[in-house]
Hints:
Elements: E1 11-14, H1 24-51, H2 58-87, E2 91-93, H3 94-127, H4 132-135, H5 138-164, E3 173-174, H6 181-185, H7 193-226, H8 231-239, H9 242-259, H10 267-292, H11 295-312
Parallel strand pairs: 1-3
Antiparallel strand pairs: 1-2
Helix pairs in contact: 1-2, 1-10, 1-11, 2-3, 2-10, 3-5, 3-7, 3-9, 5-7, 9-10
Amino acid sequence: MAPGNQTTVLEFHLMGLSEAPDLQPILFGLFLSMYLVTVFGNLLIILAIISDSHLHTPMYFFLCNLSLVDIFFSSTTVPKMLVNIQTQSRAIPFAGCLAQMYAFHLFGTIDSFLLAVMATDRLVAIAYPLRYSVLMNPRVCGLLVGGSWVITNLQSLVHTCLMAQLTFCAGSEIPHFFCDLMPLLKLSCSDTHTNELVIFAFGIVMGLSPLFCILVSYICIFRAVFRIPSAQGKWKAFSTCGSHLTVVSLFYGTIFTMYLQPASPTSSQKDKTAALMCGVVIPTLNPFIYSLRNKDMKAALRKLGSKAVSRQS
Length: 313
């Protein structure tokens, strides 16, 4: 594009999920409800884990971090979407757009890294129960979580810095409900070859590494479980993985279902659906998945509720 046809874009306009006026109140009520459930549900899990000394174990330490990330992940997109619906304004400043893109990819990627860490934790607990407390000591747990934060922050920082160097054309409408990498690249007047290569490289490394870790961990877990002689022992071992397997299936099942399909005119709609599932729906479901199927967590939540009631009386 010729320099004379380029205009500095100071803000973008998010097109949202739907432009139908009749759907706006329904969307507002639905996503407000889901956001409140996400925040309060995950906060309850965090408070239950912190307040109950019986849950001060590596498994619940990782779950506490996952719940915290889920709150941040959902908060990256939903509040802005609700404001846009309520005010009928779709504008987002350029800096705010970059910040939203940074946060979405940070929390989305660290979600997958934490799921991989939790799979490793279950492997050690089932395959090496006598050495579990030694292998998964507080220092190791801290390094696993801290390393995940550092790596994912680095990825998001690289994407954001590269995006900030691009020039954008006068067209500023993003066909999404938040600022994402690919929709932004399509609005750029600059050469985006470097950005696309970096996205591809990080996508391979950061996307496949956690998945590979999860797959290897569960292959080893299944092998270890099948060596357990009693059926009761097998069930007890598998039961500690049920909630984690459910979340992993939802998370990666959504990604595979949406993206392992041929390109089509509805690709942008598939991107919206995948982002909604990973960034809104799954964080809403996680508190139910990890509490309803976990006796220790249900007991901790009851204790937390009893303490709250006793303080008020």
